[in-house]
Amino acid sequence: MSVSSSLSADEKELRISIEGRFDFSSHSEFRKAYEDLDARVDSYIVDMSGASYLDSSALGMLLLLRDYAGGDDSNICIADCNDDIKKILAISNFEQLFTIK
Amino acid sequence: METPVLVSELSVADGLSVSTAKILIADDSNTDRLLLKTILIKQGHEVVVASDGHEAIEVFREARPDVVLLDALMPKMDGFEAAEKIRQLAGEVFVPIIFLTSLQSTDSLVRCLDAGGDDFLPKPYNSVILQAKLTAFIRMAEMHRTMQSQRDLIVAHNDRLLREQEIAKRVFDKVAHSGCLDADNIQYSLSPIAIFNGDVALAGVSPSGNLMVLLGDFTGHGLDAAIGAMPLAQTFYSMLEKGFSLQDILREINEKLHDILPIDVFCCAVVADIDFNNSVMQVWNGGLPDCVLYRALDSTVIPLKSQHIPFGIRDSDSFDDSVDTFEIQVDDRLFLWSDGIHEATNSDSEMFGEERLFGVFEENTKPEQLFDEINEALADFLSDKTISDDVSIVEVRAVSPGDFRTSQSGFIGSKQAGPRDWTLKYELRPETLSNFDPLPMLLHILIQVPYLRNFGGQIFTVLTELYTNALEHGVLQLDSSLKDSPVGFDEYYQLREQRLLQLQEGAIEIQFHYKGTDNGGNLKIIIEDSGDGFDYKQFDGDLHNNVRYSGRGINLLRSICDSIEYSGRGNIVRASFLWGDSQ
Amino acid sequence: MNTVQPSLDFDALKEVQGVMGADFPLLVESFFNDSVNLLIVMQKSIDESDVESLRQAAHSFKGSAGNMSAITLAALCQDLEGLAFSGTTVGGGQLITQIVAEYKQVKAALEDI
Q1: Which of A46-50, B302-306, B397-401 has the lowest mean pLDDT?
Q2: Which residue of C has its CA nearest to B41?
Q3: Per-residue pLDDT for B525 more than 60?
Q4: Which helix H or strand E contains B301, and what residues bound it?
């Protein structure tokens, strides 16, 4: 698995892309993707188009991002999930915490 | 016993760092020994000497050198034998043994290695070669020591971790097993180390006789996962014991876990509150895969879907404690599981999955075997592997109230102790009625009389029944006959919710009158609501099938209380308990 | 008897001298004492046909002779050690004679230093 990130042209949006399994092994990489950032971004996109699987520690990592981005005031979109990942997010009712596209 | 001299680093003038050590030379030739000793001392080493094998062992024992230089052929005991003894004495410590030899036959050199030699140093001595070899071996020994101390540290840490886990498990088991997981109508499979996989199963009985079951799955493994289990279990049992409602318990658990757990740790859980007396089950599922309510009557499988965010994520204000309500009948079965069963993976990297799990229900013919069939299907699927440690399943069978027995604690308190003569009057107004459950608090007051604790469950049942009637039929004007059909049943609870939210007027007054004697006592409970009441005189002596009761309730009350009387316009009810010489 | 070849490798010996410094005479004295003892043991071993004892003594003498840069002496000792290693002391007497003669030369050379 790997985590990569890119800033939008106006530096207002950070896109974090996950490849492969999203689990505990991605922990520090995922955190680095948004913590080691000079720009203050308004919104985040977690791009799941390359992610195959997500476990409960990955859900925990998403919660950490949410907390970092301002908790209830955060603006985080989890995008392009496959069916398995969608189901996992749905069971935990994470659509109440994140925008899921 | 002398402490072994550790290798130290000596800085020499040219800035290079040279490792020095304590070195044993064993050689029977005075000339060779003297020459070698002089070379080594010049190189900064500390030297101890021996002139034969026996002496070498003695000196080794006393001086514990870091490196041993052994002449192969010596009188009394040769170098080969001495090397073996020295290896034994050194034990786990790596002491390089270098043979001093001018032996030329390969056989002899092989013998040196077999005897535990690490290298050879040929005669005549060459101080450059000698220094190179010693430096290499001293570094090697140093690395070995570092590795060993790290290994020892890891072993020690691991031992401690296991010991701590064992203690944590024992403490947790005490708390978790204070419930009634062992009741006749409950089956469960749970790994003995489930707590360290994050799985928790709890079951307990409320004072009113409801069975409450919780299956939780914390994120993570090990201590991360176990850390929340204790407060979860304690909150669950202590609130259940005090008679708090499912909603209050859910809220408290969520708040506690939200406060305690790190942001990325949470607890997916399903909690079911089963009221055998009223044949009602309420379920809250936050984050666990669909659990199942299996209907005995028509073998239908009703999925209990996750409607909520797991425990510990949201704060109190945004926590959703709404529950799904189901009517249940005897022999209906409730199946709770964590995702461990879905994710159990066989040697082909396939997961067991929901389809296979629900397939077991489709193929089942004898409901009482469902639990075993699920476990068998999983075992078959995993074939060569033993069932994964992560699989937790709980089955609860609905039974009639009479068949549901749990071991309650024995008689407590003396009849004389505690407050003996008192009255309490408590009036609840609309805002309180719509969002506060007064029963736990009231029960708490009652059990200040130690003697009453023995009847806590029964009193609580009566109190609950009377209060629920006053609220639902008196204040909220709900018609109990609605509950007769499954559709009406849902409607009833929806209406109840709705009217509670919109409640603007109405009140309930609760009174307790307690009088104890040396050998008995009596408790009167009077509940008056602001509702229209009912024509109780019409049902004089026969309270069955009246508008306020849907059958079961009144029988229950009758079986517990010494008397139940209505007065006013049917909006006041008095229940009394008498015991001992007050009877 | 070999009197033509140099008995000592003087380059190597210089190094030994360098290492020993002021203690060099001590080393020489020790070599003389060891040598006398070993010559006696070797002779006795041949007289008694004690192969193992001969081998050990020749081995030991070879080592110290080598360390004293007495290369010819070390080579003769190695021959004697080889003989004993092959399981006999026959012919050892002749080698001893050669060794004694070479040792006298080495001794003289070392005393000159």
Answers
A1: B397-401
A2: C19
A3: yes
A4: strand B301-304
Single-letter amino acid, residue B154: I
User: Rounded to whole angstroms, how far apart are CA atoms A96 and A56?
Assistant: 17
Please give the single-letter amino acid code of residue B310.
P
The pLDDT, as a whole number, for residue A31 is 92
Predicted pLDDT of residue A1 = 58
> Could you check whether the bond before residue B303 is cis, i.e. omega within 30 degrees of 0?
no
Smallest CA-to-CA distance from B66 within B21, B121, B99, B97 is with: B21
pLDDT tier at B581, thresholds 50, 70, 90: low
Cis preceding-peptide flag for B124 (omega within 30 of 0)? yes
Least CA distance to B264: which residue of chain A?
Answer: A60
Are B215 and B195 within 8 A, CB to CB?
no
Q: What is the pLDDT at residue B386?
A: 60
Q: Tokens at residue B369, please?
A: 């075997």
Distance CA(B354)–CA(B365), nearest Å, equals 19
Q: What's the sign of the alpha-carbon dihedral B240, B242, B246, B249?
A: negative
d(CA C66, CA B205): 93
Indicate the residue type of B275.
Answer: D
Gap between the Cα atoms of A91 and B192, Å rounded: 27
Q: Which of C2, C56, C61 minimizes the C-alpha distance to C33?
A: C61
The answer to whether the CB atoms of A60 and B220 lie below 8 A apart is: yes
Buried b / exposed e along B504-519 (16+ C-beta atoms within 10 A):
eebbbebbbbbebeee
Residue A40: band (very low, low, confident or very high) from pLDDT cuts 50, 70, 90: confident
Whether the Cβ atoms of residue A73 and residue B235 lie closer than 8 Å to each other = no
Q: Do B124 and C33 touch (CB under 8 A)?
A: no
pLDDT confidence of residue B5? 37
Question: Each residue of B436-476: pLDDT tens digit?
Answer: 889 888 888 887 777 776 677 778 888 888 898 899 989 99
CB-CB under 8 Å, B125 with C30: no
Min Cα–Cα distance to chain A from B419, Å: 49
What is the per-residue burial (b if ≥16 Cβ within 10 Å, else e) of B321-359? bebbbbebeebbbbbbbbbbbbebebeeeeebeeebbee
Q: How many residue contacts between A and B have a Cβ separation below 8 Å?
A: 47
Contact B322, B283 (CB under 8 A): no
Question: Above 60 in pLDDT, residue C69?
Answer: yes
Contact C30 B30 (CB under 8 A): yes
- How do B267-275 and B280-286 pair as beta strands? antiparallel
Compute chain A's Rg from CA coordinates: 12
Average of pLDDT values for B411-427? 73
Closest chain B residue to A67, measured at CA: B263
CA B213 to CA B215: how far, in whole Å? 7
Q: How far apart are CA A69 and CA B50, in angstroms?
A: 73
**Strands of B291-294's sheet in order across:** B186-189, B393-397, B333-337, B291-294, B301-304
Q: How many CB atoms lie within 10 A of CB A66?
A: 22
Q: What does the buried/exposed string (b/e) look like for B257-275 if buried means 16 or more CB atoms within 10 Å of the residue's CB?
A: bbeebbbbbbbbbbbbbbb
